[in-house]
Structures are given as structure tokens and as C-alpha cells.
Amino acid sequence: MSAEYATFGLAPAMRAGGVLANGDYQVHRDFVDFIVDGRPLLYQLSDLDAVSPLASDVPPAIFTAQVRSLLLEVEAPLDDGRYVIYGCPECEGIECGAVTAVIEKDDPADDYVWRDFAWQTGDHADLELNGYHGIGPFRFHGAEYRSALNSLLLSDPGARRRVLLIGARVAVLAKLAAALRAIGIGTDITRDATDVPAEELCEYGAVAFGRAIGEQERAAVRRSFERAGVEVAYVDGLAPIIPLLVAQIEHALARGPHELRRLTRLVAADGEAGIEVTSTCRVQITAYRLDRLYRTHTREVFDGILEAGRHRIALDAKAVKGESFLVARTSGSVLVEAMAH
Predict the structure, then answer these.
(1) Phi and psi for 296 in degrees, rounded to 5?
(2) 193, containing H or E segment
């Protein structure tokens, strides 16, 4: 099969971390995704929980080596000229499974070709058994391909993954900080950011306010960041529920363009959830509820595969009565909404 020309680009993406309904932790990973013909390549690979080799949390030397590898400036890391396109977000071993492809250069045309995509768990890829037969081959113009990848070497690949927590309830802040650190997000806790040096404020990607923080205090924090010339996402904590707050912060840290995200809409009202996804994927919806004694109740209300488009999902009335909230997640997106009654 001859490869047809496709456009090649890059965009920031994330593998959403979080505290899951069963208490497990899922690690947060920021990475750069491959955009083929205007769409993330990852979305063409069914519902795959994976990240590209261009992850922001790898050492700079390794990140540079990954870019050089995709430019074919070093020998292929796998047999038969194969390169890892997406791998396990929890570890680096190919034993967990990885999407690999042959990358080669067509010198007369100055093109790069990606072909023979496969799911690989060992030294060799079995194209007959584990090949992605509907994906590729893709032919990229050399100048466009090199320009996109070389641009990564001129910028800092690391994302600002620290979060500043501001609240009145020390115990809640401490638990939230521990949960965020467990999934790979750094945190600091304060009540006053007015005297924090600008170079320190630059380390934060988001600021999360507890419900007890008044508007004057919030405005003072915003002015501190404005004076430092630092743009951050501000999170208004919905309730003192740790998994819910983690999900809010995960959403705030999302760096990719909204139109390239997999989960783009969540509406929670009248006992239903309205969901919009841009490609077929697994969606999980968890309901969190505070009772009259401010005890937290957690219920997984949906877990299934949804096709691209808008969907309405009926919810268990007991799970969303009173003060309740929904967290919807895919492998790369998280949305949070308070339930409207």
C-alpha cells in the first residue's frame, strides 16, 4: 500500500491522573501528541490509555534523544526499524504493551513515512495478529515534519505542574496535597501569596481556592500573579471531597486545545448527565454527594464505551440527591460539574 500525504503537527496533551472511585491512584502525565491531518493520532487507536515518548517529566537529555530518534538521527530502538509511538503511562517497559511503527525516510522526495502500526509486547511485532490494519501508512513532507519536531528542542518541554493550594481547612489541604503528589503533581499550601517572589510564582500552573476563602483574598492572590506576569488557571473548590478537588485541578492543568480533547462537554441536571466526546472511547462517571452531616458518599454511575457525539445518561436518583457533583473522565480528559436540581 502506498502512503498518502498527511499533515504532521504536535500539540500538548495529558493522561489524566486522579483518585479513582475504588481508591486507586492514576498517575498524571503531560506529553506532546502527534497531530495527523488535524486530529490526534492517539484517538484513532481505539480507547488506548497511553502516552507518546515526548513526555514532559522525562529528563531533558532523554527528551532530546526521543526527538532525535523520531528524526531518524539515531538508530531505531527496536528491531526491523520500529519506533515506539505510544507506550504505557505507568512505566517504560514494552512488556506492558506499546504502539510501534516503522519510520523511514524517502530521501529522493525528502519525505518521512510512518507505516506498519502494531501493538507490541516483545522484541518483534506480529503484524498479522496485532497490526493496526486501518491506520496509515502516512507520508509527511520532510520540511513540515522536521520543523515540528525541531521546535521542541527550542522550547522547555516541561509543563508547570505545581499547584498552589489556598484554604482555611488545614486537614483538607494536607490530604489534597498528598493525593496530588501521589499522582505526580507538586503542591504548596499558603494563605498569602502577596510576598512570594515572581520567580517562584512562575512554577505554578494552577491556584486552587477553598470554599472558605473570601473574594478579597482571592483578588489579592490574582493581583500577585498579574504583577508577576504569570498566567495560571484558578480553581474554585466545589466541596471538601478530595477526589473531586483532584479532578477539578486535573481539568485546570489541561494544556491541549479544547477542540483536540476527547471529552468536551459535561452537563449535570435533572437526574441526567449530558456528555459529548469527539471520538469513540470509554467514559466513566462518578457521583460524589455530601449528606446533611457532611459525610461523603461515592457512587460510580456509568462506565461504558460511547461513540463520538452527544449522549444523555440517566443517573440513579439516590446517587445525586442533595449537594452532589459529577466527575466524568476518559484516559485523557476530566470534567467536573455540580448537579443542578
Answers:
(1) -95, 135
(2) none
What is the grid cell recorded at 272? 441526567
pLDDT at 236 over 80: yes
> Is 318 within 8 Å of 247 (Cβ atoms)?
no
Task: Give me the half-sphere count of Cα atoms (radius 13 Å) on the Cβ side of residue 74.
Answer: 11
Is the distance from CB of 225 to CB of 196 less than 8 angstroms?
no
Decide if 183 contacts 108 (C-beta within 8 A).
Answer: no
Q: Would you say the C-alpha torsion 263, 265, 269, 271 has a positive or negative sign? A: negative
What residues contact 313, with CB distance under 8 A and at least 6 apart? Answer: 272, 273, 274, 275, 285, 301, 302
Write the DSSP symbol of residue 340. Answer: B
Element (H, E) at 322: none
Amino acid type, 195? D
Please write the tens of the pLDDT for every residue from 211-228: 888 999 999 999 999 988
Residue 5 contacts by C-beta under 8 Å, 6 or more apart in sequence?
Answer: 111, 139, 140, 141
Question: What region, left, alpha or beta, does residue 335 occupy, with left being phi > 0 and alpha being psi -120 to 50 degrees?
Answer: beta
Q: What is the pTM of this model?
A: 0.86
Q: How far is CA 138 from CA 166, 221, 277, 286, in A?
A: 48, 48, 25, 38
Separation in Å, CA 59 to CA 62, 97, 156: 5, 22, 11
Sheet hosting strand 39-40, strand order edge to edge:
8-15, 29-36, 39-40
> Which one-letter DSSP state was computed for residue 96?
G
What b/e readout covers 237-250, taking b as 16+ CB neighbours within 10 angstroms?
bbbbbbbbbbbbbb
Q: What is the pLDDT of residues 128-144, one digit of tens each?
A: 888 898 898 999 999 99
| 42 contacts 15 by C-beta, under 8 angstroms | no
Residue 244, by phi and psi: left (phi above 0), alpha (psi -120 to 50) or beta? alpha
